[in-house]
Amino acid sequence: MHCTTIKEGKECPFMTVKGCSYNDGICHQIVEQCQGCNRGTEFSSGWFCAACPEPAAKWKNGNCNFASHVSAATTSTKAKINPLKASKRGRR
């Protein structure tokens, strides 16, 4: 159904015939960590996330899994090489 509370005219999975069925009955505005994300949308009442009704809950335990502006840092660990085996391989 289309939202009738904050994101007027936008498709919302929480909207029912009785109104917004989300926890508090309305979506929450984006938090500071969400600045720069592609999912942030501006409405007449402020900036809201298009993917999540409560962005602060997504950032509570680390990075938001919907955040398009945050890249996961991969750590490359170099495996320890046995020097004896390495010297044998080098002679081949």
Please describe what this structure looks like.
The mean pLDDT is 82. The chain has a two-stranded antiparallel ribbon. It is built from 2 helices and 4 strands; from the N terminus they run ββββαα. 15% of the residues lie in helices and 13% in strands. The protein has 92 residues and is an alpha+beta fold.
Give the topology, please.
Blueprint: E1 15-16, E2 19-20, E3 40-43, E4 46-49, H1 55-59, H2 83-91
Antiparallel strand pairs: 1-2, 3-4
From the alpha carbons, calculate the radius of gyration and give it in angstroms.
23 Å
Distance between the termini: 69 Å
Major sheet: arrangement of strands:
1-2
Mean pLDDT: 82
Order of SSEs? EEEEHH
User: Uncertain segments of ≥5 residues (pLDDT<50)?
Assistant: none
What is the number of helices?
A: 2
Largest sheet: 2 strands, antiparallel
- Secondary-structure content class: alpha+beta
Number of distinct beta strands: 4
Q: Indicate the percent of residues in helices.
A: 10-25%
Residue fraction in strands: 5-15%
Structural shape? rod-shaped
Any descriptors?
single chain, 92 residues, alpha+beta, two-stranded antiparallel ribbon, 2 helices
Briefly characterize the structure.
With 92 residues, the chain is of the alpha+beta class. It contains two helices and four strands. Helix content is 15%, strand content 13%.
